[in-house]
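Before a colleague's protein record goes any further, I have to sign it off. What it holds is a sequence and that sequence's fold in token form. Would you go through it and say whether the fold makes sense for this chain? The record follows directly below this note.
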Amino acid sequence: MTRLFFFFLLLALFLPPAVAQGEFFSLAPSDTVVGAVRTYSVERGESLIEIARKFELGYNEITEANPGVDPFVPGEGTPVRIPTMWILPDMEMSEQILINLSEYRLYYFFESGGSRFLETFPIGIGREGHDTPVGEFKVIEKIANPPWHVPESIRLEKPELPPVVPPGPDNPLGTHALRLSDQSILIHGTDKPFAIGRMASHGCIRLYPEDIPILYTLVPNGVRTIIVRQPVKVGVHGGRVYLEVHNDPYAETTLADAAALLIRRGLLGRTDVSKLRNAFEKKDGMPTDITQ
């Protein structure tokens, strides 16, 4: 039986239907943009943080898409944009995990039954001074119910912590973990879901508690894992050219960099320069139509 079968079996048996379970897409060879932007009306007592989790988004995505809306008390009935549309990162789409730190998002590309698929999740990443490294790695170990062996550097910050935190609801690694070939880096769950879409870890990559079992089930040992910073992405959808720009302080880019990417993809001649400039200056993390 294929991994895809196990994926749907896991969704059916173990996860409540109301819980988000990543964003799943079937990919055609020419696809460079997936998903769609939606609008949602805030319900009584909801925060943008709760809405982000409901729609499989991180804190960064929901707040950047809704500037001027209070993330904690947006107000009942307030319309908010749900930015569930993404330009795919500029990499080959063979079977691999691709993590774009600039957008706090993980993409897993895989094949099943001769077809190509994508599962994508929002993530939390390393905070300042504990930056998640970029580079090429691979998954070398999968761990269910992982104990947390507290690094000495963290015990110096928090001496009240024991040397090992056992599995359970207070374990910051959550229910599952994938160890990368840089053995200090894990992709794991979290006991602090509000930190998804933020720089909050000591370098590891965090997923929502409901997402990590999905990734754990889909990904086999040995899968290539690439971590990049791509604050600017371009793609084509429905014959229209789109630009997506993220405000990444660790990867400064210019309008000239965006134009160079469009030239490399053969798309600059189809682009409205004024729309390109406006989209670049907004840096709202959403695919924007810049077609001439």
